[in-house]
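Weekly sync notes, structure subgroup
Attendees: PM, AL, DS (notes)

Item 1: joint prediction request from the bench team. They want all four components modeled as one assembly rather than separately. Inputs as received:
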Amino acid sequence: MTQSRPAAYGPAFSSRTPPAHSDLTGCPWHDVKSKLREVGLRPTRQRMALGWILFAKGDRHVTAEMLYEEATHAKVPVSLATVYNTLHQFTEVGLLRQVAVDGSKAYFDTNNTAHHHFFVEDENNLFDIPARDVVVGRAPTPPEGYEIARIDVVVRLRRKRG
Amino acid sequence: MTQSRPAAYGPAFSSRTPPAHSDLTGCPWHDVKSKLREVGLRPTRQRMALGWILFAKGDRHVTAEMLYEEATHAKVPVSLATVYNTLHQFTEVGLLRQVAVDGSKAYFDTNNTAHHHFFVEDENNLFDIPARDVVVGRAPTPPEGYEIARIDVVVRLRRKRG
DNA sequence: TTAGATGCAAATGGTTTGCATGCGT
DNA sequence: ACGCATGCAAACCATTTGCATCTAA
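Output from the run, pasted for the record:
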């Protein structure tokens, strides 16, 4: 659950945002700022910081509390309320996806492409299922008047005893 | 497993006085009592009542609050704490299954056979996906040291706009 | 009789909200 | 300067817990 510093930028990060200025190519700060601008959110200090933490390291699954602690550790002054606000705003504009696995707390996923999850209840650990391992065979027929908004698959795991 | 109740049972649930004897074979009161005995739970007044409400009408998806209100309406004196206790105990022994769809409240499903769900977010409506409409094609390979405990599929629906 | 069950109320924990102050444009 | 953004603390809500009182066996 602990996160290493966002100091080292993750590998794959630039899926969009053509590099504008040579020396800053691929710089998360830039990417985050563009990301925010693109979706119409003012790039404030805390949104930038949270966005940096969230998107600079590839796919992540965080809870509000986790993100708050990370930000605090990273010496970024943010209130928990703002973390919640930001997570929701990011979700609204499609930057994040909310995953319901544990009735008690909400997880947010930085990977908003179609994919599913593994969840280890005893460890409260949530992670992506490799895209190869397709799980959904065919979508069920929705009842009259409804259409499918999304299909969530959570494969719950337990430690193999032995 | 044994889910299909004899069905025909009036909605009216008069009082806490369980019909004591006579021709009660197949009567939910009986079934519930056996059910409880089988799993080693003492058939107390409130457990009987809650079990009756839950299992006498086929597949159901309830929240603690819903069950509490139903019981109250049915003139069954139960405290909310007991409803929670009972739901959890029933779940532990396999009489119920907990479904995580909405991060905020917990739903309990009386159908504990393998199946999945449709969930209409705007209506907070949860219901089973017909068994025919198999959704899971193949199970993903769990990571080393883990095994699959269960696979939950939630197909989120939205009203078809038209 | 006695372990287990229940009820109430207070405690918890995650999340939200109201409102005064701060900051990006 | 304007208006959204932020922080804090109080409010909220679903759920849990402590403890004294019942009750099924």
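Discussion: Confidence is low (pLDDT under 50) at residues 1-25 of chain A.
Action: AL to compare against the crosslinking data before next sync.
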